[in-house]
Structure formats: C-alpha cells, structure tokens
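User: Structure with pyridoxal-5'-phosphate, tokens only please.
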Amino acid sequence: MPVLNATGVVVHTNLGRAPLPAEAVAAALGPCNLEYDLEAGTRGSRREHAETLLRALSGAEAALVVNNNAAAVVLMLAAHAKGREVLIARGELVEIGGSFRVPEIMEAAGARLREVGTTNRTYARDYERAIGPETAAILRVHPSNYAITGFTHRPEPRELASLAAARGIRFLRDLGTGTFGPLPAGLPGDGAVADAVAGGADVACFSGDKLLGGPQAGIALGRADAIDAMARHPLARAMRADKLTLCALQYCLTAYMEERYERIPGHAMLHCTAAALEARARRAAAALAIGGAEIAVAPCEDVVGGGSHPDARLPGWAVTIATPAADASALSRALRLGATAVVATVAADRVWLHLRTVPPERDGDLVEAAREALRAVGTRGAANAG
Ligand SMILES: *Cc1c(COP(=O)(O)O)cnc(C)c1O
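Assistant:
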C-alpha cells in the first residue's frame, strides 16, 4: 500500500528504500528492448543497456547487474575466492541489518575469512604479512551503519589495490552505497562510485536503491576479466536482475548521464535545501490551521538512511502538531491508519511531519491526511470524554 514518508529518513528500508521515478516504472510496462538490438533488428544481450551506461558513468571496463547488493557480494566472493582465503580488517566484520553479516556471507560464498589488524587500527602492512599461498583476495567492506572514531587507521584503498596487484591477488570492495551524481553538502566523501573504481578495485559493488535512488539491484563494476568471471559463474543466473529492475535502472542511469538529477526523487530529496523545506513547512502549516490543534513549524534533523552515513545530519524542517484530544502517539497512529497513510515521527509530545521525504507535489495530500487524523482523534477524544 502506498504511504507518505514524513519521517525525514530518505532511504527508509521499511518503506521500500529509494522512491522510484514514476517514469522509471512506466518504462518497464510494455515490451522493451530488454534482449533486442534495435539497430540490427536482432536478438541482443540483456546485459547490454544498463551496463553500457554503467561503464560510461564509472569509467570501469565492465559491469554486471544482479538482484541486490548482497547477491553481488556473494557472487563476487564465490567467483574469486571459493575455497580460498580472503583478508579483511577486523573493524569491517560488520552486520548491516536484515541478516547481512559479513562473516556469514563469506561462509555462504565458500570463502575462508582471515581477519587482519585490530578493531580500530589496521595498516597495509597487516594485510601484507597475512598474504600467503592460500590468499585469493583482500576484501574491503564499507562499515555503513556504524562509525569507528577516535584512535583509528585504515589504509587508503589505493594502497590495498597496489598491494593486491603486486602480490597477484584480487582487491574486492563492498561499497554498500554509492551514486554517480553530486553528494549532498555535508556528507562525507564516500559514496562517489567513480572514485572507488578509479582507486583500483578489481570489483566494486553497491546497492541500486540507496544513494543512487534507483530500483533494488546489486551493481558490480570493475576489470573485464574479474566481472566476466562473475557473469559466467552458475550463481549469476540465479541472481539475475528482472525486466522491471533493468528498465528502471536504465531510466535512472540515463538521468545521471544527462545530469538531469531532478528526475530521481531520492536525489532531489537528499539535495533539497533547508530554506526550500522551511517554505513548504510554513505553507503546509498555514493550510492545516484547524481549531483546537496546536500547529507549528520547526527545524529538524533528517538522515540519509538505508544504513549509510550514520553520522550525517541533513538540516530539515517539519510541521509539528499537538492536540488536547489525544497524545502524540495516538495522533501518529491515526495518521498511519488514514485514507492516505502517513508515517511520521513523535518527539517532545508532538507529531513531526518532515517535509524532506514527502514529494513536493504531495504536500496537499499531507495536509489533507493530517486534517483527517486530527478529526479522527478529535471525535474519539470527545466521545471518550462524553
Ligand atoms: C546495504 C548494504 C549491503 C546490502 O545491500 P542490499 O542491496 O540491501 O542487498 C551490503 N553491504 C553493505 C556494506 C551495505 O551497506
């Protein structure tokens, strides 16, 4: 069921992650050139379209799209390290959520995990010392949903890439999240996929529905021989992306190619300025003014979500509501159960409607839903009092 996300969490995993452009879905409705070469009028390759765009956007030699990033990581390890050893820093043995735990993924792919360094500090020489005849690869995992701060060290990806190349092993990266567009102001620099590719990874993979703002997908980029080994692996067929995904992804990648970022709702939400959000909050609050309820606007903190950039706060604005007829959690429940379901947050005994994650063209629907929820709890409050 469709809901309005008024939580301020842009990539909300429980609400379906990145909001897709309607045009991206429409692209998949009818027949499409999924495996058809329009120029030659003959059978083409399913890998052709999205992957051509991915190569152009990232500078990688080759690309492969699978069902999600978890699948891409399993395939990457199965194709390059099955039955052999993979070196990983202790601080990167993370659980991302939704049961994605790096040691278990490694085991499922048939690779043997070898930890190097310490939880907070790992150097290139720690990897170097651990390389032996059984070593197939160095794996670097983005810690995503948690941050190690203070007395810490991680080698630059470039150092690991040259170490791996010198010793004839693979350098594999799970980036978790990434984009081909500009990153929102104030976000730490990771997330730029082209940088990771240029940094020398044999394979780098990331999700299609986090920062990128596309459909659920796992995108692997890298050297031609390394990506081919993944594409030829028997598991690849079981993890194949479907038509909907490939068509929607192609739409989003074309928007990035043409630098028409406004076509990607997730991108637009991440980049919306506090001033624009404040103006929308004030308009919505004025439209909502209703007898008996206390309606205000206030600055708030929004987040990227999707288990990425846990420390980054995006300056947002919200409409906040309190009513004597019900407490904030009852009002928030009424919002969720209205004709247009709205998921909001509750803080300081008020309901907060974060504007950032509401598509601007739905502001009127948000106001209408809030009015309906206030009516619902108002009636109930009056009935209880009577
Ligand atoms: C999110 C994430 C995954 C899982 O990606 P899905 O697309 O949800 O399968 C794997 N690794 C990292 C580092 C992540 O952040």
